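Exam revision sheet. Question 4 asks you to relate a sequence to its structure. Input first:
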Amino acid sequence: MERAIFEQAVREHRDMVFRVALHVTGQRQDAEDAVQEVFLRLYTRERDFETPEHLRRWLIRVTVNLCRDTLKSPWRKRRVYLEQLPEPSFHQVEQRELYREVMALPEKYRTVLDLFYYEELSTREIGEVLGIRQSAVTTRLTRAREQLKKRLKEAWRDDE
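Answer key, structure tokens:
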């Protein structure tokens, strides 16, 4: 890949790749490692992309697959504690609480929420990226929303 095209791709997509990696792994350090590995794979890729959207979807697919491989690694502890997660700064308390509750969901739910709401992929595109049926994506989104709604109601009840 040409250096100028690669540098432009990094500028345009590094935040997205990091967000996806963070939602899949739940760990800032693993997400940072994944970003480096994803862009290394992009740099060494020999084939060109048909469109900018093709590049974007390729980056998401490689990020998800790489992060899942990291989670399967035998040396990595699978348990993620919320207090270990990086907490971005938020302007409103509600945003911080929502972030915490999303990050407490299982990986398969965090990932579809991120791809649907933040990366604005359709359920069909998410299915293609994750290698699952569109109906499975819809089911995961529904279950993620239900769990999130329940968790937020409990959190708000506890605050009162």
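Marking note for examiners. DSSP finds seven helices and no strands in the chain.
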